[in-house]
Amino acid sequence: AVLDALAYARTRNGKTDNRHQISHLEVVDPGDFARFKELGVSANMQLFWALPDVYTIEALQPYLTPERFKLVYPAHSLVAAGANLIGGSDWPVDVFPDDPMPNTPLRATFMGMSRTNPFEPQYPGALNAAERVTLDDMLAAYTINAAHALRMEKEVGSIEVGKLADLVVLDQDLRSLTPEQILGANVTPTIFDGTVVYD
Prior knowledge:
Blueprint: H1 2-13, E1 21-23, H2 33-39, E2 42-45, H3 54-58, H4 66-69, H5 75-80, E3 85-87, H6 105-114, H7 135-142, H8 144-149, E4 167-170, H9 179-182, E5 187-192, E6 195-198
Parallel strand pairs: 1-2, 2-3
Antiparallel strand pairs: 4-5, 5-6
């Protein structure tokens, strides 16, 4: 319905540089995958939740047909269709001391790449393994893709001369890690506008 409304607005107003996005995407009709690119609509997904757990297996799966359940968090299908994937944080305020799985971009990166739940063994396997995305997909989702959606790609989203130095440094090279090992990566310094604000 949102894509239809945006397509209609385009017929009335012409193509503009509006950078619409749909947040909290969970189930997407395959007929709409290519429409995200066609209409320039970003796919804002909270892939932290793309795992087998009580919310997806017990509270969702019984109410969807098997065909539709395979479309839960279709990140790979959207990326393959050319959609601009954005990593949303959803609810980072739920983090508490010693939380084994805080809702952070690193945890969401693990989920997007593995779609497994290592903290609840009663939910084995992966949630729609065919919808896994790559590390590069997830890094872009939380950096340059999000910056583009916010019209801030000239200020943030990548490390370049002239852009704001808003970044974190990790204690490990994510490209050398398995998805599971990403869970052990830690932020060392945090730099905001060129100033170290956490170390």
